[in-house]
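Example A, followed by Example B.
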Amino acid sequence: MWDAMSGSVRLARRGVCAVGVALGVGAATVGGQESVMHHEHAASNGADTAFARMQSRGAHVMGVDQYTSTHHFVDLPDGGRIELQRDPHDTAGVAMIRQHLHHIARAFKAGDFADPMLVHLQEVPGTTTMAAKRDVISYSVTDLPGGGAVRIATRDTAALRAVRTFLAFQRREHRAN
């Protein structure tokens, strides 16, 4: 939830509480362990500040380091696929990804696009139509060796345009293919 008075994002879901993420530095409690996310890692990799902040918010929302995970946003004839993977030997990270993807599929099916909004600090293009057309869009999760994928499918022309708009935005923002 965005707190306009403090200029921060508060995320209280699935045991995660983040305050000050919008500033690019936030404290998080995940599974009872407290950690502090900074952007020195991002800066050392040459990432710009806005991208580093988005990566940090993504880590809070998804539960895994975005710099050690790989996103793919794939257009398909009847929709698309969101893939998120990391080193398959990181079993805890892979489990977090799978949990997140199942959560996303359920939330999107219900017309809830709060997670992408928290990551990007804006309404993500396509999500208004995807929410309105939720009854004609299906979401299914498949496990992959290092994580998983959410398959998005529809036969509705307006919903398909919205899904492609959503995926294009995600590809651009996450610098993914």
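Example B, a separate protein, is given below in the same form.
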Amino acid sequence: MARSAFVFRWLVAAGLCLSTALAGPIVILSGTDLTGVTQFNNQTGANVLINPHPSPVWATSTIGASWISYALTGAGQSIAPNATIDSAGSITSPPTAIFYQSLDLDGPSISGSLQVWADDTTQVFIDGVLVFPLSLPIDQGIYCVDSGIGCRPTLGGTIPLTGLAEGAHTIQFRVYQLWSDSFGLLYEGSLETDTVIPPFEIVPEPSGLSLLAMGGGLIALRYLRRRSTG
């Protein structure tokens, strides 16, 4: 009886092992997809890598992201058209460019965040919901803006990514050029998903089934032999 209880506990433990979360972190880096599939913009489709200002004027990636734009609009390259700012410090024209990052999660996100920098500034939406607004009135600095999301290391915005449901999601960045200079976007981060494989969903190969059946038969024979010699 003790042996049967042991085997039962072993099978339950094996099932629980199969049901543990197996997913690793999903890393999100700007500039990793230049084909227009998961990262794209409303101006030219596929994003392009641009020349950043020498550090520390523009933030430097810590985990591998790159400054991107819809064209070559970085330091020493072409200039993007300005958005319009009224006398109250509000932007009254559409974004200079809108960038997108698509995600397809295999489980709900249980933790994670995204750091975002822009020149000159940006607002961020997730699935059409505003999660980081512009800082108004616009506070002009020597480089990009002096509040909200800007381009310098200390002016990055943090976007929480916890609580996203399983399935497809889109992060949208509405980026504004304000002062006829370099223009671009940088973002990097990661998230963890709670991906669970249900117990006993993985079916062993025939050889594995044979071994399991053989083991069960041997246990049964031994039990019967003990009873007969009892």
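On Example B: The chain is about 20% helix and 30% strand.
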